[in-house]
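From the pipeline queue, job 12 of 40. The input is one protein chain; the requested action is below.

Action: predict structure.
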Amino acid sequence: MPHIVFGERIDLEDFSKKFTEIFQKEPFLIKITNIFIDNEKLTALLPTIVISEIHQQFLIEISTRKSKTTIRLYPNTDPEKTDGVKTSMALLAQQIMNHYPGFEITKTNLSDYLSMVIKN
């Protein structure tokens, strides 16, 4: 399962206020327009659309605990793990790192996708 783990806890309420729409046209369409946070403010879901060779709608989950934050695919939507799906997760990680420059990725299986989207 694709995932990105940050070594810090994100304040999801703060991030939801800073979140801006993610929209990419090439090489595949990626659209993430909303963020929804649970009552405990420990989990956020982001409805995502990716259109490449197939059209997929799924949820990306951001979960936060005491000392880490994880981005992963919400298991109940289980899209096919295409390049577009993995890139959408990397673009979300990029936005988090832009808003919280001190955050570092401590674990991931999406290094190739992150290196394509993360701007130094």
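Job complete. The radius of gyration is 13 Å.
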